[in-house]
Amino acid sequence: MMQADRQTRRLLWLLSLASSLLMSLPWLVPHLGFVALFGFVPLLCAERIATLSGVRWFWRWHYASFVLWNACTTFWVCNATVGGGIFAVLANALQMSLVFGLFRLSRKRFGGVLPYVLLATVWIAWEHLYFDAQISWPWLVLGGAFARSTRAVQWYCVTGTLGGSLWIWACNLALFGLMVALSDGRLFRWNAKARWAALLGSVIIVVAPFLVSERLYRSFDPAEGTPLEVVVAQPDFDPYEKFESLPQKEQNRILLGLFSEALGPDSTQRCLLLAPETFTGDVWLQDGEVVSSPTLAAFRQFMERYPGCDLLFGASAHTMHASGPAPSLLARRYGKGWVTSHNSALMTGADRPTEVFHKSKLVVGVEMTPWPRLFVPVDNKLGGVMGRNEGQREVSCLHLEKAAEQVPLGCAVCYESVYGAYCTEYVRHGAKLLTVITNDAWWGDTPGYRQHLSYARLRAIELRRDVARCANTGISAFIDARGDVLSQTPWWTRTTLRGTVRLRDGETLFVRYGDVTGRICTLLAALLLAALLVRFLVRRP
88 and 60 in one domain? Predict the structure, then answer.
């Protein structure tokens, strides 16, 4: 008995390990998104074996599996902050494990397929709510498994990324159900119609989305829309040198030199120039207007040589407030007044007002303090170690001056490009193009910056908008509305990228109706959890 128990535990560890490795592959290796369609099957098998064998404390196995999956795919966060990286891995895995634990609990009161329906719906409901949580790290949303296999998920323009999460759970549960029916011998006890219906249904669940996606891919014309010339400058600054020792004037000289080389002497051309996130920290605002910025002044002087161009760049901006009560809990003292900080994007030109957009989806700890009433006093006692940036309450567009017309475009600043439903707001405000400015160098040469690029490909499909992406050290890229990368820069290389993107109109169903998949699954999850609670409260006669 002891030997059998030891063998069972070894099998549980083996299956849990297999599941974590399978689920890691889509985020680490291109074109392996399909692996997620069966990546949870070993863990579901382990859970069934543990239940039938009476193994206690199964949470150790499923939590370990989720920790390993998170660690394999997002270990690179530790390159920027060791404590933050460890917390992200353990806390995100814990939330996944809690969802799985609810599924385990439901098996004590529900029979048949209901516990598995609860597992899928609660998981997707958690992903849906996670996008709007104060502490949010949706990097491993299941639908993101296809970020490097975008030809397979062109229907994200209808469902969004959570449609992929639902597909992944549907495939895993269908395959697991067939395996259970086969191992129990029930598959052969069913009549022929039931047996063929089960097999055919499973094949359809797995194969049909691929076929639909291929049809959408072939029918979409990436050449539609108005062409726009874009020049991306990748200055390739080591972030630690950039923020600690490299003078801003030298950074400006390097960036403008890249633009000059790419544009040449022709001053009649019309194009959009893109520079990366937080390029400068000398932008001071008052009442929403720039009142001081040597960098902005240098840029506007440079743009006089190219009056037909507009320049979009990132900045650490600061808003000055007069003396008196603090304008918000996140404000810091500045002389006799107050100052609030932002991670911003600015659009400027030779002879036009400068527009400012403040990043709203901020990185917890580094950029923002969650639940300020609770954590700001704690942070004050620690010496103010957490970021206190403030974002915009509502999404707004920046505008490109083109032929006496203002063309709206969206600018996702770094982390914002991970949030699909959030990015739909740009299109609802009229954006004809999505730009992404970022600085991924904090993570070093790891899968992090490649994963971040791939999420921009999903946004292109969901919105059906071309994407122009500018990164400090790579990867900068042009992505068409099918999610195909048209051209890109190397990693850690000082260079420019010039190309043509398309300005597009129209709204996808995902833009028009939002995350319907997440809302429906949240409703179903709430109903199932309520039924589960009733089952526990009401004793059976």
Answer: yes
